[in-house]
Amino acid sequence: MSEANSIGEKFAIADIPFYTNLRSTFNNSIYTFSSIESMHLFKKSRNRLNEPYSIQRLDNCQYIGIPLFQCQLKKDSSSWFKWDSSNVIIYKYIVLPSDENYTQRNYLMTEYLVNKEYELVCNNEEHKISIYKLVYSEIKDETSLFSFSTSIKYTINFRDDSVSMTFNNNDGYLEVENSLFHNAKWIHNDKVDDKIGEDFVIDENYKLMLQDESIVSEFDNIERSDDTLDEYMGFLKVANNTKPSSFSSKEKGQYHDNNFLNDFNEKIICMTFALIAHKKYKYNSEITTKRRKQMCLRLLSGDVVTY
């Protein structure tokens, strides 16, 4: 293996924070943002994106306080007979002008919403924008419920593509297969002080290595502390090589760019959601096994609680 341990120096690095409120009983979503400032603004507004001062417009015309992506457990019958980590849906947030007199509105509506499955999140009257979230991908657990296999396979399905991720319990890496990620691997480095407590924490490091052994992304949260449990889950580092806009640079400079990241990096974000979902599945399984062992010991010792 090569000695490469980080993303190539020739690229500018973007830090994409992952956020969830681990203390919330009702929120099962994980969000990503364009910056830590955007994440903090979202947390402060408590996801009330329609309210004044919940969103800020930067000098480059980008809006912050709005997520890039949301990962959420599907709420339909397809997830009833799966583990909590299975059958999750990933939404991409889209910001469009609500002012019908805006010259590029029809073009942007067609560009981002036509023939897509989406829903309106809200309108923000302060900035005259409409916020949508469209179905970007879904994560399916391909493992049989009663399988004794030591590996678990997830498939991330997109509109015209898919990514497979295979977790082998005896290996120190996760296999990835896709046209953009042929024979790629997520290299997993366990930390000695993994936090196992009341809250789920993924206190580890993952690096995405391509077939040529180059590192193109890294997810890490080793700098988290107990004081930040409900702030962020970690940062995803990616090469900040956004694809060019499909309309003129002059027009792009006048409005929010929904293509903050290219297709390559957006797929990496979805894989990171799968990493977190799998870690949560393992955590829940370990907790369930531990509780069953404790109950068996109580039964054997005669120390049974009655109600």
Descriptive report:
The structure is a single chain. Helices cover 20% and strands 30% of the residues. About 9% of the residues have low confidence. The chain has a domain of 202 residues. With 307 residues, it is of the alpha+beta class. The protein is globular. The N and C termini lie far apart (59 Å). It has a 12-stranded antiparallel barrel with strand order 1-2-5-6-8-9-10-11-12-13-14-15. Strands 3-4 form a two-stranded antiparallel ribbon.
What topology does this entry show?
Blueprint (H helix, E strand, L loop, with lengths): L12 E7 L10 E3 L3 H10 L10 E2 L5 E2 L4 E5 L14 E10 L7 H9 L4 E7 L4 E13 L9 E7 L4 E7 L4 E5 L6 E6 L15 E5 L5 E6 L13 E6 L9 H4 L10 H39 L6
Give me a quick take on this structure:
The chain has a domain at 13-141 and 229-301.
